[in-house]
């Protein structure tokens, strides 16, 4: 075989391997997306069983306003449902109580310290101009 023929064969084989790799990669991505979609559907089914319509609407509103907190509350509800800690469907009132408990636990205490002496000195310095 001459060099151009060998090079052509190499190019064909390389193209075949790349096409095969892309095909496997696409199948993996598709399978992953399907698994994620199934997990989301299961999550929605469990939340529908655990929450009544008004509580579900409040949770969706929370997810729109504060996505991190909404996701955290959803995960907490799913864990509680899997452990059997929820007696039945939660109403809006029970969800609000749960959200208040979460807020108390996750609330960060922020304090503002204002040094009046420094502010007074700065003010006096400005007056001397």
TrEMBL record:
It comes from the Eukaryota. GO terms for cellular component: cytosol; nucleus. GO terms for molecular function: DNA binding. Pfam families: dsDNA_bind (PF01984). InterPro entries: PDCD5-like (IPR002836), PDCD5-like_sf (IPR036883). Belongs to the PDCD5 family. This is Programmed cell death protein 5.
